[in-house]
Amino acid sequence: MQKRFEKISDTNITRSASKNSALARLNGLWNIFERSDTVLIVISADPDAIASAMALKRLLSYRVQSVVIGYPNEIRRLNNVTMVKRLKIPIERLHTLPVKEYSKKILVDSQPNHLACFEKMSFNAVIDHHPVTTGWDADFIDIRPEYGAVSSMMVEYLRASGIKPSVALATALFYGIKVDTQNFQKQNMQAADSISFRYLFGIANLNLVRKFELTELRRSELRYFRTALNDVKTSKGRAYVHLGKVSSPDILVIIADFFNRVDSFDWVIVSGTHGDKLVVIFRCDGYRKNAGKLAKKSFGRFGPAGGHKEAARAEAPLKNLPLRENKEFTTKVLIRLLTTSAK
Asked: Per-residue pLDDT tens for 146-156?
């Protein structure tokens, strides 16, 4: 699938605006909506997705009848909980909303085949920065894998519309860019990310951003570090560890990022079971390595898997995994699946 910006023929588009300009994209997005539309913005809630949904809601204000932001996942990571609470962000759990009653739906910071609940829905617009997937379509598609964050893309939309973000919105977008670019350490960040970040710097509440960053771990989650440090297995520059049952997949990300800072680890693969699923987090330096490809190659046959060069994720129902009867998933099984896929 190629990047596509549908329905951009609008009298408000200047002749100097190219098809891929911010103004053309903005008008292409606006053109798929009517004043009577009730819009549902769907996200898998994390800082970049939440901030981008806020920006999109602002862009659609006064152009449609109503806009609601819905998310399927429980928000448990303290940074994200603090962000939503301090900025008073109005988002609602997807299962509590009458999804079929909304006249238009937008998927942000994800694609329809990223989660099973998304695959059951049809979207009028998809805006994302992850690698392009296939098997779905929408009236308006803006996917830019070369961008470090969707928040950077949304800043371009806002500036093209002439809308200056409020302090709350600017703070959310600023934090979204920081998180998804890992403070500009990711390989796929662009000059566009820096431009958007710099624009927001003079508007955002930096003290609040610092508060979000410092609020990361619950005391009860420290035990996972003990397990990780005791059980980690290493081989040829790779670090593997399975943490067993976890209260939230977010702790897997925190521990994977922690191990990724260790000098001798070129690859970090951390897994855990949450509910009836295995979640696997991949980290590497992104230099001559590709975490997204490894995730897809090793776990793509079991469930959704993929990501960027330096960071990726896989989720697989436990029933899909090749486990021997009455056997639990362990670090040894994790290593076996990864080494088998490499052959």
From this structure: 899 999 999 99
